[in-house]
Amino acid sequence: MRTARRLVMHEVRLLVSLVLWVARRTQGADGGRAFGYARGQGAMMAGFGFVCVVETVTMSVLLRDWPTVHAVFLLLDVYGVVIVVGLHASSVVRPHVLDVEGGSLRIRRYVHVDLRVPLERIGAVRRELRMTHERADGELDVEVGSQTTVTIELTEPVTHLTFFGRRRTVRVVRFHADDADGLVRALGRARV
Length: 192
What we know:
The chain is an alpha+beta fold. Helix content is 42%, strand content 29%. It has four helices and eight strands, in the order αβααβββββββα. The chain has helices spanning 2-22, 42-62, 67-93, 180-191; strands spanning 33-35, 96-99, 104-109, 113-118, 122-130, 139-142, 148-161, 167-175. The protein has a four-stranded antiparallel β-sheet with strand order 1-2-3-4, covered by helices on one side. Strands 5-7-8-6 form a four-stranded mixed β-sheet, covered by helices on one side. Helix 1 crosses helix 3 (67-93) and helix 2 packs antiparallel against helix 3. The protein starts with a helix and ends with a helix. The mean pLDDT is 86.
């Protein structure tokens, strides 16, 4: 039951992200400096959306003689296109947020990841482009387009809540930011 609720909430958040994207609003960036990460995946998401649209048209042609089956597949295909657009919208409206006054860095990806890192726990921060990521205990890789550009090492672990609600403690966080150099400099100034 809890898993079903999480899945429904995920879909609701994606739809809310679509509305915010159309309204040109961001979510959760109040009081802090936003750092986007959507450019690193824009072309990939556009390509994925295009493939979904082509599949929708193809299935409509193939199933035109079976109206009930056609209607079901059309509904599922259109919903798939909405989800793809919603994923991209969520990456645009939910940027990383550096809140110096609040003392935290909020690392996000779509509606899946929302990790708050207290600034006092950041031991080291560096710009580091990584294209491959192997899962390791105590490490969280928040990739965009299979790459990360910023690495943060923590003095004390923080708890990351996974998509299905499992808790993981992490000491190293790698994530992508469009302006990785600017984020690293801003974090350096905020930690002083």
